[in-house]
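Hello Y.,

Per our agreement to keep a running log of every chain we model this quarter, I'm adding this entry. I've kept the format consistent with earlier entries: sequence first, then predicted structure.
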Amino acid sequence: MIKAEIPLLGFAAFSGTGKTTLLTRLIPILRARGVRIGVIKHSHHRFEVDAPGKDSYELRKAGAAQMLLTSKYRWALMADRDEAREPELQDELGRLDQAHLDLILVEGFRHEAFPKIELHRPSLGRPLLCLEDPNIIAIATDAQLPAHTGLPLLDINDAQAVARFVLEPVLAGRFSGVGQK
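Predicted structure for the entry above:
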């Protein structure tokens, strides 16, 4: 089971289900209630957060193992991995300053053991993840499920309802050791 200093909640689904869409609607609701949120998003693609031609990009490409870009508004740490390997959530959690957060939301890392809400749209024809993952604590869906799961059901299109679920049982810590896969 993944360990964090504060509540940790994942959003697990197949690509195209609406994880980012839901999170972009959920985060402002939680922020309005005073919740300080960190987000970890897993990507299966190469990505570049810096721009070629910028000093920070050129310094990193020149061989800096880590490049910290900072201003009075924000800071960003860029580091190239020594070898191409899939990241592990436990390692990535260590990069966040959890002392300044109340909740960590995770998009992706669906195969790792930590509490998750499954997003499921039956119209996409994909199987339910909860049937194989004991760490799923609720399902957000837009239609009747093909099987009874016994899990709480949330409306995937109602970010307020998802926020209530996050604010009540998740932040209360009731799901800190689910599954133990």
